[in-house]
Amino acid sequence: MTETGSKPSPVSAVHGARLLAALEATKNAATRANAEQRTASAGLARQHLELEAAQEAAQNLAARSHDIRNSLQVLRESVDRAKLSALNAGLEGARLGEPIGKALVVMSDEQRNLLARALDALQEHGGLLAEVERDRDRCLAELSRISEDARQATAALGRAEQQTALTCALLGELRSDLVEFFGSDPETARAMTEAAAHVRTATASLLELAQRAPLGVDALRELLSPLLALIPASEDPPR
Amino acid sequence: MAQRAGLLVRRGGELAFLPASVARWLVPLPRLTKIPWDSAEMALVGGEVVAVLVLGEASGELLVCELDGQAVALSGLSADRVGFWPASESGVSVDGVTVPTLDLSEALARFRGDRPAAQEGAP
After folding, report:
1. DSSP code of B98?
2. Is residue A174 a part of any domain in this protein?
3. pLDDT in tens, chain A (239 residues)
């Protein structure tokens, strides 16, 4: 690095150019990440809305199962009444005595058997409904948990989005400072970095040529020396 | 063997027989009302007020009977089935098993006998 105000050396200029190029690439990556975060955040917000709709649907199911339970209760009461009616018909038949009342008693008994089966079926329906209600309650609890997780994820993503935006702004400031410091801009920095790479390649080729043509070595060394001076001291020329 | 027509009822899990001449009809359990200063309960059945003998825990149905020409309702019974069965010494034989006739004398005696004691606190 050079002191502020003094002319930068060729070596520090190359380093500065690389630094600016890396900074520019980092800033671009941070900007892209910020855009991705915004997309993800919008997706999460959509999912949160869908989850809320699913929760509402599950709660509507609760109201419907309550209606079904009421309906089952009405059915049960009706079957109970019908059973009593069948037994009363049988009692009439029993009072009439055999053989007149026998048919009535037999019919009554058949009705009673059928109604007993209906009662069993209603009992089974009640049991199944209870299972459905338990499953629905589990679903509701799970949906509530997922919704809370999604809410927390949305909040965390929002915070990350803010941090990335802040990083972008800081990188922008850093870039401006470096541009001012090196007296260059990112485009020039990139061009300089590419030029340095070309110089290294050309130097390597010329060195190889010098080894194969010993007579022109001195002349080539003289030709190469200004170019070699441009390469940073820490980088060994390719052999 | 002579056949007896009647109703099989469950009382606390035990089957009992009631002749068709006694058991009149079954109704869903109506509201039972206690008579002040008396152990008796009454119910409105088919527009008539009848005395109710409580024989067990409420089952959701009330059996209206005719005893000595009087309408009396029985609660705490669960009607099982109606039919004709061979008569046995104590009741009827249902599928080879003797089912005794429901003994209402004790319940009736208590119903009648409780009244003077229950009336002690009456104004």
Report:
1. E
2. no
3. 444 444 545 546 667 777 777 888 888 888 888 888 888 888 888 888 888 888 888 888 888 888 999 999 999 999 999 999 999 999 999 999 888 889 999 999 999 999 999 999 999 999 999 998 999 889 889 888 888 888 888 888 888 888 888 888 888 888 788 777 766 666 776 777 777 788 778 777 777 776 776 666 667 667 767 766 766 554 444 44
CATH of the domain at A103: 1.10.287.950
B81: which chain A residues are within 8 Å (Cβ-Cβ)? Answer: 87, 90, 109, 112
| Distance separating alpha carbons of residues A172 and A63, to the nearest angstrom | 57
Does A140 fall in a domain?
Answer: yes
- Does residue A227 form part of some domain? no
The letter for the amino acid at B85 is: W
Answer yes or no: do A87 and B28 touch at CB < 8 A: no
- Whether residue B84 and residue A102 make contact (CB cut-off 8 A), yes or no, is yes
Residue A87 lies in a domain: yes
**This model's pTM is above 0.90:** no
Q: Would the ipTM clear 0.90, i.e. be above it?
A: no
Q: How far is CA B76 from CA A149, B62, B68, B73, in A?
A: 55, 8, 21, 10
Beta-bridge partners for B101: B17
